[in-house]
């Protein structure tokens, strides 16, 4: 029977308490914690070390905090951790835990703690990150969902960051495949951000896995999300960028992936579309251009699936005028005036046709009065 007595230094409870205390000690950030661990080996050894030994690595005040008894605030937080762990499907992974993701161990500074809700086995399955713009186009959302579903069906885990737009579509696609998706959050695992994705987060915790390196109760902060991105790429063997503007945070994830030795893939788009600029930049810098899922699976040595549909799907229920308009529109963003010339339609007729096609999901209205066909 496993020893859960926190008073026994060898018990799992005591080891976990030491990891939590190390994370919660004021003045001990990630870099300092890893520096101490490289010298003393385990958190328990750090807390057993003398003030003099600790003073070689940290300030006097931090050394005293590490030498003294556990502060009341830390003990209270540890109680909240135990309450969180008592809920079904919740796990707290430390670097010495058997289920800690092996790829994260390769990072220069792995997370000290990984709060996980759901199927932790997914954290060790070969994975691909699918990331992109929060303000995605309808076509980008459709692409993210389709690629993620195909990657999941091929046996890969789909990893993303639970943001609006491409991230949410990627998680949804992963769940539609084999339920294989991991959401890495920039808040505590008990806080869902953005709130609009609360229902999706619950599905992920039930069918996939939701993870965070941030302490419970941590709210959204701008600095959390770039740091979170290193775990998204770190969990994966490759990253797919679906849509990204020139300054998109998704490009940070792609750069981290390249620095970590992961493959980077990008879906191209129109040269006129702002959300294609980031993908085109990645492709110029060496990312692999993809237009079907096999372009990802084959380099990763995963059995290829039938490629994502290349033929344009028929527009069921469209009349001849609407079909002609779709042929004229193609997949490039175009303004209504130019489209009227291309389609040879009167403005009033064109407006009605565009509205009908937009309501049917075949056309998307873009900022600036532009329209674009959507492959469904």
Give the overall average pLDDT.
Answer: 89
Radius of gyration: 25 Å
- Spell out the helices and strands N to C: HHHHHHEEEHEHEHEHEHEHEHHEHHEE
CATH class descriptor of the largest domain: Alpha Beta
Briefly note the CATH topology name of the largest domain.
Rossmann fold
Which terms would index this structure?
single chain; 376 residues; alpha/beta; DNA polymerase, domain 1; Rossmann fold; three-stranded antiparallel sheet; 16 helices; 12 strands; 42% helix
Please characterize this protein's 3D structure.
This protein is of the alpha/beta class and 376 residues long. It folds into three domains: 1-81, DNA polymerase, domain 1 (Orthogonal Bundle), CATH 1.10.150; 117-297, Rossmann fold (3-Layer(aba) Sandwich), CATH 3.40.50; 320-373, Winged helix-like DNA-binding domain superfamily/Winged helix DNA-binding domain (Arc Repressor Mutant, subunit A, Orthogonal Bundle), CATH 1.10.10.10. It has 16 helices and twelve strands. It has helices at 12-24, 30-40, 43-48, 51-55, 60-67, 72-85, 138-153, 166-177, 198-207, 224-234, 250-259, 277-284, 294-297, 320-329, 336-343, 347-359, and strands at 90-93, 114-118, 127-131, 157-160, 181-184, 209-212, 238-241, 263-266, 288-289, 334-335, 363-366, 370-373. The strands form two sheets. It has a nine-stranded mixed β-sheet, with helices on both faces. A three-stranded antiparallel β-sheet has the order 10-12-11. Strand 11 and strand 12 (370-373) form a beta hairpin. Helix 1 crosses helix 6. The termini are far apart. Mean pLDDT is 89; it is low at 307-313.
């Amino acid at each position: 029977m496993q020893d859960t007595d926190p008073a026994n230094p060898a018990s799992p409870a005591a080891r976990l308490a030491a990891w939590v205390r190390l994370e919660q000690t004021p003045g001990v950030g990630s870099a300092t914690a890893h520096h101490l661990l490289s010298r003393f080996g385990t958190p328990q050894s750090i807390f057993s070390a003398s003030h003099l030994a600790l003073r070689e690595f940290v300030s006097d005040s931090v050394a005293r905090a590490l030498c003294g008894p556990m502060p009341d605030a830390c003990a209270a937080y540890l109680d909240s951790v135990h309450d969180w762990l008592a809920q079904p499907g919740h796990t707290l992974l430390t670097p010495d835990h058997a289920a800690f993701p092996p790829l994260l161990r390769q990072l220069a500074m792995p997370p000290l703690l990984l709060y996980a809700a759901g199927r932790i086995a997914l954290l060790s399955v070969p994975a691909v990150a699918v990331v992109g713009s929060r303000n995605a186009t309808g076509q980008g959302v459709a692409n993210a969902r389709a690629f993620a579903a195909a990657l999941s069906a091929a046996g890969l885990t789909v990893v993303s960051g639970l943001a609006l737009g491409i991230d949410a579509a990627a998680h949804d696609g992963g769940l539609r495949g084999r339920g294989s998706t991991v959401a890495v959050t920039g808040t505590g695992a008990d806080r869902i951000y953005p709130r609009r994705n609360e229902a999706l987060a619950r599905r992920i915790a039930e069918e996939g896995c939701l993870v965070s390196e941030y302490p419970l109760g941590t709210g959204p902060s701008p600095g959390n999300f770039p740091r979170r991105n290193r775990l998204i790429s770190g969990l994966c063997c490759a990253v797919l960028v679906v849509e990204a503007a020139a300054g998109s945070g998704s490009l940070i994830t792609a750069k981290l992936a390249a620095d970590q030795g992961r493959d980077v893939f990008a879906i191209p788009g129109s040269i006129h579309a702002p959300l294609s600029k980031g993908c085109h930049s990645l492709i110029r810098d060496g990312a692999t251009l993809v237009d079907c899922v096999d372009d990802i699976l084959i380099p990763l040595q995963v059995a290829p699936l039938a490629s994502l549909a290349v033929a344009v799907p028929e527009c069921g229920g469209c009349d001849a005028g609407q079909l002609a308009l779709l042929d004229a529109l193609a997949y490039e963003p175009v303004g209504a005036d130019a489209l009227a010339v291309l389609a040879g339609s009167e403005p009033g007729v064109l407006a009605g046709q565009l509205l009908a096609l937009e309501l049917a999901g075949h056309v998307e209205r873009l900022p600036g009065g532009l329209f674009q066909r959507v492959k469904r």
